[in-house]
Write a structure and sequence with these properties.
The protein is an alpha+beta fold. It has 12 helices and 17 strands. It has 3 domains: 128 residues, 2-Layer Sandwich (Heat Shock Protein 90), CATH 3.30.565; 135 residues, Gcn5-related N-acetyltransferase (GNAT) (Aminopeptidase, 3-Layer(aba) Sandwich), CATH 3.40.630; 214 residues, no CATH class. The radius of gyration is 23 Å and the shape is globular.
Length: 487
Amino acid sequence: MAERTIAALRLTGAGRVGAIARAAAVAGALELGLDAASAPGLGDAAEVVVQSIAEHAFDDPEEVELEVQLLRRDDAVVVRVDDRGLPLAFRDEGDAFAQVLAAGAVDEAHHESRGAEGNRTELVRHCAATHLDIRTNADPDEHTETLGAPPADASIELTIRAMDPDDADGVARLTWRTYGYTYQHQEFYRPDLLRQVLSDGTMRSWIAATPGGEVVGHTSLVFDQPDALVAEGGRAMVDPRFRGHHVMKDIARLRAQHADDGGLFGFYADAVTAHTRSQMLYGGADQPVTGLLLGYLPPTVTFRRIDAASAPARRQAVVMSYHPRRPHDALTVFPPEASREVLRRIYQAHDLPRPFGDSDDLAAVTTSTLESRVWRDLGAALLIVHEPGGDLHDAVRSRLRSIRGAGVEVVYADLPLAHPVTPAAGAVLNRLGFSFGGVIPLLRDHGDVLRLQHVGELDVDPSEIELVSTMAKELLAFILDRRDAVS
């Protein structure tokens, strides 16, 4: 993830520090490539957040001290605010987080309370870079004609190899031919962003190419942390003309070899449930799964040329899977009572040694360490509970209210299963309307993560969720029952 900082301000004391932050944010955003229509909105958001922190995070105005940075991160301008006061206020009135989200001035808003290290808030606005986006100049007929084209000659010899940055244009073109406007990973329409994630090592990919150099298949491993023990396997696509040629099987073999050579314990994947093709990549009816997230994807990716009339009417679910590559070390986990039996079955199905430990109560005097990530374009948010404390109920309730009040439909929450107070934390989140979603082994800090989901009044039609795995079908019934139990 490439970053370039253009300015850093140290703001102290009482007064209109928000106005100073606004002026700097607008000027810096323009310099970093944000258009003249969007920069003032980002500046307004910066003013609201900075002023709120200055007025509410410190008992003594003389103790007010914040650092505001203006930076470019990949295709976005970011205002980053660091402080050592109280976490950003999430209240019924004057809620700065909800204000900036509801105003639509930012595309993402993230907040992390890090205990003694203070707090970090980031406001993200994506730059308009339509000249780099393949969707702005691609021929819509290319997608539809590819879907209807006869199968390619089976005698064509494909080259299977690792992707390098020079292949980015070919992979973007493959994305267009395969998915048209509807692929959820936006960087695959942007060759410049594909080159960045390949260069910084957060994504490693493999492709299939024809003798003429046309890319007709792709898959990858995506890493959540630099020292991750597992990776997300996916971003899989095959040109419709080459389906049935075992393209995915061949490139997935290279991906698996890389995972083994790198010492990864395994990889996890999400497969959409609106159709079964992506699920079949990871096995059939006997394939074990680790969870199912309702409403994970919006009905379609918003783009100015898409035909919304042909889009699905509801948000789409995804089924979660995990694929061990080598034996796992035993790790003691502390599942919430409501999830104990389903987690036991998931671990047994994947042959993961996970003894259950004795839980502790939430400490009445500790402060929870939380992180909030909100993506407005996807209508989704993630709350990461790094350290559950005695204030967890109020902290999550206020953040949930802020996020839902800004029109975000679905909120997920991650709990660390290696923490002895996670059972108590899970009960707290259940009372707030969160229910079981799934487990991701070794996702974060070398430990398993329990992912809960809060989908509110989201319209879910089970008949639209097509599942291949028998275990996935049983898990869907459990998840729907748990949703009813906490609603």
